[in-house]
Amino acid sequence: MKILCGDKNATVDEKGRVVLPAEFRQAMGGVPDGILVVEKNPHLTCLNLYPSESWEPYFTAIDRRLRRTDRDQARLRTMFYASFKEIEVPATGRINLPPTFLKAKNIDKEVVFVGQGRFLQLWNAAEYNALINPTADNEQTYSELYQEFLSDIDPDRGEEEANL
User: What is the DSSP string of the chain?
Assistant: First the structure.
């Protein structure tokens, strides 16, 4: 699978269906098993869409970490399992998204798919534009965030030069 990057506008129809952009399908190798996992992002107002090969390590790590015998962890485990669903991806690429997931993340007609390396995010277009084009004085720009969290990585040498 190639790196999933960039963003692509799309439209969700009244039945909650949207066409997965061809460039992302191609980068995923055509969604080999015909399945994506859609997850309510726990931190942002978007959905995450994972090809199975990217979902499995993430799922396994969480499943192994959360103990069923601890009340809070068992509660989180229940919430986690309710936060994702497997969806089929037909050859046309038109996927049916769960209406409750769309509503929970304020996703309606105009949307944006955003590559995240090994998975995609699906955003309400207006919320995505507000995120990447901050207007409030207390919101940092891309440049400021990059400087704060990634300035020690040399783009020519990768992490070997980083002060990690």
Answer: ---B-SEEEEE--TTSEEEPPHHHHHHTTS-TTSEEEEEE-SSSSEEEEEEHHHHHHHHHHHHHHS-TTSHHHHHHHHHHHHTEEEEE--TT-EEEPPHHHHHHTT--SEEEEEE-BSSEEEEEHHHHHHHHS--STTSPPHHHHHHHHHTTSBTTTBGGGS--
Q: How far is CA 110 from CA 8, 9, 14, 54, 58, in A?
A: 11, 7, 11, 26, 29
Domain containing residue 40: 7-133
Strand 110-115 and strand 120-124: the pairing is antiparallel
Length of the chain: 164
| Span 89-122, pLDDT tens digits | 998 899 999 999 999 999 999 999 999 999 999 9
CATH code at position 19? 3.40.1550.20
pLDDT of 157 > 80? The answer is no
Closest CA to 132 of 124, 123, 141, 119: 141
Residue 106 included in any domain: yes
The end-to-end CA distance of the chain, in Å, is: 27
